[in-house]
Specification:
Largest sheet of chain A: 7 strands, parallel
CATH superfamily of the largest domain in chain A: P-loop containing nucleotide triphosphate hydrolases
Structural class of chain A: alpha/beta
CATH architecture of the largest domain in chain A: 3-Layer(aba) Sandwich
Oligomer: homodimer
Number of domains of chain A: 3
Strand order of the largest sheet of chain A: 3-2-4-1-5-6-7
Number of strands of chain A: 7
CATH topology of the largest domain in chain A: Rossmann fold
Distance between the termini of chain A: 26 Å
Number of helices of chain A: 14
Helix content of chain A: 40-55%
């Protein structure tokens, strides 16, 4: 497929073209850039939702429950998974557990996993591109599923307008991270597997943590779900829609998008620079340099200077 | 103090000079570079230990207990804290709780907190420099205390030869992260606050997690501590020393140092590039560019190209 065919296919919502477009933009090069440049004017329509939380919070089942809920209403959904512990990312969708098997033949659902693929570009970069492509392809909702509690490499805040933090009873780390100010405040907080002991304790810990941090405007609701049975999923989607409606008052949605784009552009530029660095200083060169520093023949700062100068030279010569 | 006086003072183990040296290397510039270049040949003697884990694992109390144990044996210790939730980092050392107040007048202990300071350079960069300076100053042991479960910006693996992961009962996230392969395997695992319910469950979860990941050579011991009473601290130090002895067999210690230095050099170079980027594209320029992308006048890739080209031009002109 030529870039032109891919662009046309994405605009027409064709699955093969969408998959090809994402693959093209995972690699650095002119084809991917042409695809992104042509599709970008058609973005901005989808509702972009980020689903994040520690590994084991069963975000996948919650995503699957959201998909069922949305499909029942005729809403189309695309999922970008960057959670290496997610069964989506394993490539092995575990039938009953995930229940997305229901949607295998459904053109209104598209699933793409990112984390285990070989990205020559950065993972954040590739994930952002995938979200743009799925938006341009006309999906009503794009869900980005990431692992981590705000410390992840893929900054979900930069890609999604509404960020949902998924926790389970017994996982206190994220709450500690909120208290410590090392984690950004999500827009919606979900306690999944709420039938487990400790759900009530966790909810009150969250309430306490939220009183310790400054919040202006939207106060994140704390919801209980049992994704495996679909319990609480209607309320979760309602909270996401409420958050979006709150953003849409005044200039907040646009401000959020500009803020996200600022972060995303910076990450894009840094990932490109990292790629230039790795092209300029290959493994052997880095090994040799590290050995010289450990042998105390050169200091780390001077070695880093050598690396950045070589990178600029290489990138300028491109 | 001139850079020469600072260098001389650090070599003589003078506290004021050490503090000044760390501050100098927190800022980009010729003075910091001169200090690092002069001190680097004198590094490599200290035992470098990383202490990491989720916020709330009470790493500070464990660090304090280690310090007491080491000081009782006449061993000198420096601590570099990059945990924003740590009381060390708050600047407010909480007397009884931390118990480092015992060492305020002790020249054999030096504490430096990094996370809340204004670093014009990157935090990883500044932390690495501080470790080098404290090593060159002659401290027997340098402890780096970082928050996070392996996903932190400050890569403790790059700075320490032995990495201790500190968990508490109820914190399952780190175990999930080990299982999912998103976290590097630590060298020693500590369950702190081991008197709390769930310590035994956590220990068996860890054992199970460790059977799921490939481990060759050193198998991380799992220890129970109650840092507040000093319980288990002798065993912890024993495990750290055992790990170091295992590394010292053959070429492993040197290989570990080279591996750490490879990571550190790459981070150093990337942090420098990030600084160049922020110098070339200030907030106003980034705002304007992000607004144009959100308005769909330019696509993100093209905007990132503009940013990297401007950065190279700026850095070359330096």
């Amino acid at each position: 497929m030529t870039p032109e065919e891919v662009i046309e296919g994405v605009r027409a919502g064709k699955r093969r073209a969408i998959g090809r477009a994402i693959s093209m933009t995972e690699q650095p090069g002119a084809d991917g850039r042409a695809v992104l440049a042509a599709l970008h004017p058609h973005t901005g329509r989808a509702i972009r939702v980020g689903l994040t939380g520690p590994p084991g919070a069963d975000k996948s089942t919650l995503t699957a429950a959201l998909v069922r809920h949305l499909r029942a209403a005729g809403t189309t959904v695309a999922i970008v998974s960057v959670d290496p512990s997610s069964p989506f990312t394993d490539g092995a969708v575990l039938g009953d557990r995930i229940r997305l098997v229901d949607h295998f033949l459904d053109d209104g659902v598209f699933i793409r996993s990112m984390a285990t693929r070989g990205h020559l570009g950065g993972l954040s970069e590739a994930t952002g591109h995938a979200v743009e492509i799925l938006d341009a392809a006309g999906f009503d909702v794009v869900i980005v599923e990431t692992v981590g509690a705000g410390q992840n490499e893929v900054e979900v805040q930069a890609l999604a307008e509404t960020v949902v933090l998924v926790l389970i009873p017994g996982s206190g780390d994220a709450i500690q991270a909120i208290k410590a100010g090392v984690m950004e405040i999500p827009d919606v907080i979900v306690i999944n597997k709420a039938d487990r002991p400790g759900a009530g304790v966790l909810a009150s810990e969250i309430d306490q943590a939220l009183t310790l941090v400054p919040i202006d405007g939207w106060k994140p609701p704390v919801l209980l779900t049992q994704a495996i049975d679909g319990d609480g999923v209607v309320e979760l989607w309602g909270a996401i829609i409420d958050h979006r409606a709150a953003l849409a008052e005044g200039d907040a949605l646009d401000a959020r998008r500009r803020d996200g784009m600022r972060r995303r552009l910076r990450v894009l530029a840094l990932e490109r620079m990292a790629r230039d660095l790795d092209a300029a200083i290959d493994d052997a060169a880095l090994d040799a340099l590290a050995a010289r520093v450990v042998a105390r023949e050169v200091d780390p700062s001077a070695a880093a200077d050598t690396m950045t100068a070589a990178t600029r030279k290489e990138a300028d010569g491109e």
